[in-house]
Amino acid sequence: MTATATASSNINTNTNTNTNTIHASELRHLRQADPEIRILDVRTGTEFESVHIPGSYNVPLDTLAEHVARVADLDHPVILVCQSGARASTAQAHLNRAGKSNLRVLEGGIGGWMAVGGETAKGREAWALERQVRGVAGSIVLTAILASLKFPKVRLLAGGVGFGLTFSAVTNTCAMGLLLGKLPYNRGPKCDLDSVLSQLST
After folding, report:
1. How confident is the model at residue 125 (pLDDT cuts 50, 70, 90)?
2. Domain boundaries, the chain
3. What's the start-to-end Cα distance of the chain, in Å?
4. Which region holds residue 85: left if phi is over 0, alpha if psi is between -120 and 50, else beta?
5. Interval 66-107: pLDDT, tens
6. Are strands 121-122 and 51-52 parallel, antiparallel or unpaired?
């Protein structure tokens, strides 16, 4: 069996959603064995512009969710990447439900890739969406606590944010992140899905 065939087999045989991940160091070795491995980055366009794995393709999570059937039709095995792994896992769940099983999520996301010395392409620096969520949530809580010194009921807002963050952790979703991702400064260049799917299919 050739190195390329072995690499593709390693992706295709690991189809259990609960264990369907790949460590960054393993992905580095697979890319060396098979340069044609497809890497799909589901972060926002701005995050992707800031730093990404060379040769990867950007389809933001909200765009993927709207066109999941078209992405699921890809025959090639795909590695899903985001900032930490949460959005990639959500994308994997969408694609699994649409019938695509030859998927793996990069453990630790782009941060995990950089931690093992993986090659990156960098552009204009921007805050990752998870960092923006922490900043917004923290600011709301701090403001609510300070305001509650004069208006006690405002502290309920801080409690609401705390509940939202707990729910986000339990369900591995983030409503605030999805909302922030739709803001103009996060969207970056518009995703040309037809072009991306054409390149992924070759």
Report:
1. confident
2. 3-126+189-201, 129-181
3. 22
4. left
5. 899 999 988 888 999 998 888 999 999 999 999 998 899 999
6. antiparallel
- Who's near 196: CB < 8 A, 6+ residues apart? 57, 58, 59
Active site residues: 82
Other CB atoms closer than 10 Å to residue 46's CB: what's the count?
22
Q: What is the 3-state secondary structure (H, E, C) of 129-168?
A: HHHHHHHHHHHHHHHHHHHHCCCHHHHHHHHHHHHHHHHH
Mark 151-165 as b/e (b = at least 16 C-beta within 10 Å). eeeeeebbeebeebb
What is 3-126+189-201's CATH number? 3.40.250.10
- State whether residue 97 is helix, strand or coil: helix
